[in-house]
Specification:
Elements: E1 4-9, H1 20-35, E2 44-50, H2 52-63, E3 71-75, E4 85-92, H3 93-102, H4 107-122, H5 130-147, H6 154-158
Parallel strand pairs: 1-2, 2-4
Antiparallel strand pairs: 3-4
Helix pairs in contact: 1-4, 1-5, 3-4, 4-5
Length: about 170
């Protein structure tokens, strides 16, 4: 069962991204399908498309890092199958747009990566240790493939001396 998805555009710059609402919903639905997890009936998830100013404030308040980041996830505590509110995902336009340009990918593909990454955090995935990071990255690759978008990590695999570009909230 898919959660109710509340998409909120909090920054005007996001108007430049085509079909943002549909992309977000599709990404969450495919992520949930790929994870095959049971959720509470009528649960909800909130996705806020914001800007660097707001996400920097949240990053400073909740993570002690006074800098903007691409995506933050705030899972609601408790048993996943019992939660009515899965949590919130916040995505910053300026950071995501710059990363997409730097990584030579479309903003839609990078937004999809950030939505799936944030949603996986709400489902309990993390990247605190190498094994968990590998599991999460594999899941992101499988979701991207099902969505018909390029592997979000492919360019790093193809370049032997490249430095992996990770979601900026990891640095």
């Amino acid at each position: 069962m898919s959660p109710e998805i509340d998409v909120h555009i909090a920054a005007a710059q996001w108007a430049k991204v085509d079909a943002l609402d549909a992309l977000t919903r599709r990404c969450i639905e495919i992520s949930l399908e790929e994870c095959a997890m049971s959720l509470a009936h009528d649960c909800e998830v909130s996705v806020v498309f914001s800007d660097n100013t707001e996400i920097q404030q949240l990053n400073a308040q909740w993570r002690g890092l006074n800098k903007p980041t691409n995506v933050l996830s705030f899972p609601t505590p408790g048993d996943l199958a019992q939660k009515k509110l899965l949590g919130d995902i916040i995505i910053a336009y300026e950071t995501v747009a710059q990363e997409a340009a730097d990584q030579k990918k479309s903003i839609n593909a990078h937004v999809a990566h950030m939505v799936m990454h944030g949603f996986l955090h709400l489902l309990g995935y993390d990247h605190e240790c190498d094994a968990d990071a590998q599991e999460m990255e594999l899941m992101e690759r499988r979701i991207a493939m099902k969505m018909g978008i390029k592997d979000p990590y492919a360019s790093m695999d193809d370049e032997p001396n490249a430095t992996r570009i990770t979601p900026s909230h990891l640095t």
